[in-house]
Amino acid sequence: MYAFKLETLRSYHPQEGxxxxxxxxxxxxxxxxxxxxHTFFTKLGxxxxxxxLSSRELYIRGQSTxxxxxxxFPAKLMHGHVDALIERxxxxxxxxxxxxxxxxxxxxxxxxxxxxxxxxxVIAANMADLRGLNFIHDYVGIHRKRDFPKKMHAxxxxxxxxxxLSEVKQAAKAAYAEYDAYMQKIRNKGDEMIxxxxxxxxxxxxxxxxxxxxxxxxxxxxxxLITSLGAAVISEDVISAxxxxxxxxxxxxxxxxxxxxxxxxxxxxxxxxxLVQLVSFGCxxxxxxxxEVRSILESHGKIYTQIKIDEITNLGAVxxxxxxxxxxxxx
Length: 331
Known about the structure:
The protein is an alpha/beta fold and about 325 residues long. About 45% of the residues lie in helices and about 10% in strands. The protein is built from 13 helices and 8 strands. Strand 3 (about 90-95), helix 5 (about 115-125) and strand 4 form a beta-alpha-beta unit.
């Protein structure tokens, strides 16, 4: 599933547009929102250029502008992604602050975590090379479908001339439709994979984390390692939509976390499904999610497996952990 999602996102290619190029750094929430923003800006006549897939070299390139080593690795990578766009001569980079994500009706609210929501502010304050460029990092609320076009039009008017409100409305309509189609495509493919795994008698691992864990430099190929051990890999967003809101033991106010809890609850009644949670070392809120996911799983008699990932590339310990899980399941 991770490979399918990454391949789908990489199919959004730049199209020449009369309004010039606009860069999107491929990390954090812009991973899952690429279908939305790519469609939105393409419809407005921009050529949407994304930064390349993460690599060690890209990380090192942006390292000198990281103000704190305590933040999660996916956030640290954003410095390299922005730098890669600057290196390519992109004069306009779009990376908005977003307090809220889409409301999937699974939690008490639908925030992005503080790092995902406000990291553009950190980038703006610490990357001197952005001076003289258009770095659009205004506060945007795509969760408010009705007034998003009007608000977005006002933001764009600060940076560009001649973009009409009607153009923004049309672009927004196409963007929302594309995002919904992308998510449906992912869920349909996931259902196909689950059916195939069951037909072949394979165990199913719900490899759970955040949308940006698709990034090969972040997940270090753990998805492929699991498939090499004979299991199918499905992401949490495939099955979270099969659940409705249910009571949990924590304040459930983040969209990505609500998916984790819903996925854990769903597999409680699925004999052939088990969950592995990917966690970043620098993620403060995962101190909460890990305890709650464990609690939900153990209430259903399921084994909880956590894998901490960041700059570490040695998969030896990960392999031992996964083999232990499969041995326990067979026992």
